[in-house]
Amino acid sequence: MEQKPARVRIIDAAHQLMLTIGLARATTKEIARAAGCSEAALYKHFASKEELFVVVLKERLPRLNPLLERLVASPGAWERTVEQNLTEIARQAALFYEQSFPIAASLYADPRLKERHNEAMRELGTGPHMPIRGLDAYLRSEQAAGRVRADADTYAAASLLLGACAQRAFAYEATAGGTPPQPLDEFAASLARTLMRGVGA
User: Which residues bind DNA (predicted)?
Assistant: First the structure.
C-alpha cells in the first residue's frame, strides 16, 4: 500500500493528537512521531505549530469560512433564499465549533500559551473572529441586494447566529442525555428562521 505524502501524514497526525490530548499538549515532536517523520521534516512543511493548527482547521474540519467567502462573492448566485443560506451556515458552524472546541480548549488552561497562540493567529491573519466578519459581510451584501432590512444590525445578527452555534457545541455535555434538544438540521433551520424574523426585508 502506497504511503501518504508527508504533509498529509503530518496533518492527519496533528488532527488526531489535537482531538485526543488537546492543542497545548500536542507538541511538534509528538506530531512528527505520530506521522512517522522527523521534527525537521515537519518544519519543512509548516513554520510553526500554530500554522499547522490553522491548516487542520481549514482542511480537516467543516468548511465554514469557504462557505462564507463563496456567499460574499456572489450572494444571489445560488438562487437560494437568505434563510436557506443562513440554515447552511448555521449547520456548518455548529459542526465546526463541535469539532474545534475539543482541540483548542486546552489553551485556556495556560494563559501564557494562549497569548502566544493568539499572537501567532494575529500574524497569520486569522482567528475565531473571522467567521463573524465573514457572516457580517455576507449579510451586508444581502442588505445591499434588498433581501435584508436596511436598518438591520448585520454584525449583531452574525454574532447571534454564530454565538448560538458555538454555545451548542458545549452547553449540553453535562445534561443527562449529553446531547442538544434538537437534531442539527432542525436546530440550524429554526435558528435561521428565527433570525430572519428580525432581519428579513
Answer: 27-46
- For residues 76 and 85, give the distance between their C-alpha atoms in angstroms, rounded to a whole number: 10
Q: What is the pLDDT of residues 96-131, one digit of tens each?
A: 888 888 777 777 777 887 888 788 778 877 778 889
CATH superfamily membership of 1-60: Homeodomain-like (1.10.10.60)
Q: Where in the chain is the domain with CATH 1.10.10.60?
A: 1-60
Q: Determine contact, residues 185/155, Cβ cutoff 8 Å.
A: no
Contact between 147 and 138 (Cβ < 8 Å): no
Locate CATH 1.10.357 in the chain.
62-199
Question: At 200, is the secondary structure helix, strand, or coil?
Answer: strand
The DSSP code sequence of 112-179 is: HHHHHHHHHHHHHT--TTHHHHHHHHHHHHHHHTTSB-TT--HHHHHHHHHHHHHHHHHTTTTSSS-S
**Reported CATH class of domain 62-199:** mainly alpha
Amino acid sitting at position 168: R
